[in-house]
């Protein structure tokens, strides 16, 4: 859920070294040539993940060390000075021996978005203690245990776990469910809340069936797209919430709803195409179900409102396109999408572009979070993933920009830090399919 709009909606509504991948992962190796998955069916079928860092000339040992250092800083670095932690490095705080949270430093709270990212980073990198600690917090403090929103998660709490708003942010719930599914595949299921596969399936099933209990479904049954924020703001969507690569796996994890998840794959791909401006590749933060920018009655196309411009939420749509391409094969529309986006940002200056734009490419002002760098590390990371499906000669420029970007620290390290470490995994071929029911997984 967006940082700029979260409070408004509330009113309305990943040095530790990179863990080696066991043979049971869908991870036979990396591709060091071209986009890697063109015509191949993607890593889900070949076991070969595109490695944009290798293509750019970086040695595997250097990549592993860089990822390990980023994990160490963002999960076990300097905690910073209480109570704000604004001068620190880590995002991960151990509340009890078996419970931990990731903090949004700028807002001094805990959000399902960050918890889902952190859980996924932990399972990808093989850190089970951190994973279980995060899951324990999410399960016991954030998950709604009864009523019409049962198995959804309250989108944010304070750092003790006290719920601030019981509204739901679908991005967080989807990432938590995907991380649990992958934990089941990587580590196997335990008992109780550590029966990861069961917990994942329960969450996924609820996304389509809360209406059976008098609640509101997370996915719109007509468009098959995730709504912005149940139970209240459900008349529009957020392109960055569409995760077709995840949905292909959710159809295996939640077989009773496989047809619905398969429809969500088609709908999500279509939305990611339609929402992107054909001139720039920029998508809006929020969109109507037909892909047009979402605007409130008080807004106009030329204003700087968060809803219909390219800002923090929309950065993630770039990676959503390219994770799907890496896992399931590059499609022509994904190449067109990434080439268009790269040409726009090449024109803005690869190492100097700003991070917020009107969809036509006109830069916006810095915005409310003035402590963030203008060339934000989170967008740098997301833009670098375009190299997975792009074919233009300049695609490695964006990968080098991420390589040369330091690990985020200080007050802005929450969102940028999570996207930075995810981007490192995406670009190195280390964002892998661990789902037990995934194609090729044994």
Q: First CA to last CA: what distance?
A: 35 Å
Number of domains: 1
Percent helix range:
40-55%
Shape from CA axes? globular
Overview of this protein structure:
This protein has one domain (6-428): Glycosyltransferase (Alpha/alpha barrel). The chain has 15 helices and seven strands. It has helices at 6-12, 43-46, 52-55, 60-76, 112-125, 128-142, 170-187, 196-209, 244-253, 258-275, 312-328, 332-348, 377-384, 395-403, 413-428, and strands spanning 29-31, 48-50, 92-96, 99-102, 110-111, 156-157, 163-165. The strands form three sheets. A three-stranded antiparallel beta sheet has the order 5-6-7. Helix 5 runs parallel beside helix 7 and helix 13 runs parallel beside helix 15 (413-428). The longest helix has 18 residues, at 170-187. The chain is globular and about 50 Å long. The two termini are 35 Å apart. Residues 2-24 and 27-39 have low confidence and may be disordered.
Topology:
Blueprint (H helix, E strand, L loop, with lengths): L5 H7 L16 E3 L11 H4 L1 E3 L1 H4 L4 H17 L15 E5 L2 E4 L7 E2 H14 L2 H15 L13 E2 L5 E3 L4 H18 L8 H14 L34 H10 L4 H18 L36 H17 L3 H17 L28 H8 L10 H9 L9 H16 L14
Parallel strand pairs: 1-2
Antiparallel strand pairs: 3-4, 5-6, 6-7
Helix pairs in contact: 4-15, 5-6, 5-7, 5-15, 7-8, 9-10, 11-13, 13-14, 13-15
Give me some keywords for this one.
442 residues, mainly alpha, three-stranded antiparallel β-sheet, two-stranded parallel ribbon, 15 helices, 43% helix, carbohydrate metabolism, signal, Glyco_hydro_8, xylan degradation
């Amino acid at each position: 859920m967006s940082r700029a709009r979260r409070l408004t909606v509330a009113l309305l509504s990943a040095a530790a070294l990179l863990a080696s991948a066991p043979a049971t992962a869908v991870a036979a190796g990396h591709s060091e040539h071209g986009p890697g998955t063109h015509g191949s069916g993607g890593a889900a079928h070949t076991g070969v993940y595109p490695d944009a860092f290798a293509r750019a000339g970086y040695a595997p040992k250097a990549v592993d060390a860089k990822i390990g250092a980023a994990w160490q800083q963002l999960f076990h670095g300097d905690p910073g000075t209480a109570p704000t932690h604004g001068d620190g490095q880590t995002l991960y705080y151990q509340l009890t021996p078996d419970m931990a949270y990731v903090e949004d430093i700028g807002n001094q709270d805990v959000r399902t978005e960050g918890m889902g990212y952190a859980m996924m980073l932990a399972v990808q990198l093989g850190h089970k203690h951190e994973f279980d600690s995060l899951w324990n917090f999410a399960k016991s403090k954030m998950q709604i245990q009864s009523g019409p929103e049962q198995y959804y998660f309250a989108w944010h709490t304070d750092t003790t776990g006290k719920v601030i708003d019981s509204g739901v942010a679908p991005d967080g719930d989807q990432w938590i469910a995907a991380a649990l599914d992958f934990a089941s595949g990587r580590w196997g299921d335990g008992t109780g809340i550590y029966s990861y596969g069961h917990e994942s399936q329960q969450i996924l099933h609820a996304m389509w069936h809360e209406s059976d209990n008098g609640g509101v479904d997370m996915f719109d049954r007509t468009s098959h797209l995730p709504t912005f924020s149940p139970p209240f703001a459900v008349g529009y969507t957020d392109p960055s919430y569409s995760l077709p690569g995840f949905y292909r796996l959710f159809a295996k994890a939640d077989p009773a709803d496989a047809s619905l998840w398969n429809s969500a794959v088609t709908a999500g791909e279509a939305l990611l195409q339609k929402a992107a401006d054909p001139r720039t590749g920029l998508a809006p933060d929020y969109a109507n179900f037909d892909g047009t920018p979402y605007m409130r009655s008080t807004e106009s196309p030329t204003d700087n409102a968060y809803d219909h411009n390219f800002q923090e939420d929309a950065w993630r749509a770039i990676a959503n396109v390219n994770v799907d391409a890496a896992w399931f094969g590059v499609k022509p529309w994904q190449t067109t999408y990434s080439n268009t986006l790269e040409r726009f940002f090449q024109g803005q200056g690869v190492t100097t572009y700003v991070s917020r734009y009107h969809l036509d490419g006109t830069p916006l002002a810095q915005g409310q979070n003035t402590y963030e760098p203008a060339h934000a590390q989170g967008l740098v990371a997301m833009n670098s993933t375009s190299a997975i499906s792009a074919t233009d000669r300049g695609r490695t420029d964006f990968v080098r920009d991420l390589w040369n970007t330091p690990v985020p620290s200080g007050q802005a390290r929450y969102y940028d830090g999570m996207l930075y470490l995810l981007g490192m995994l995406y670009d190195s071929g280390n964002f892998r399919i661990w789902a037990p029911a995934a194609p090729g997984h044994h």
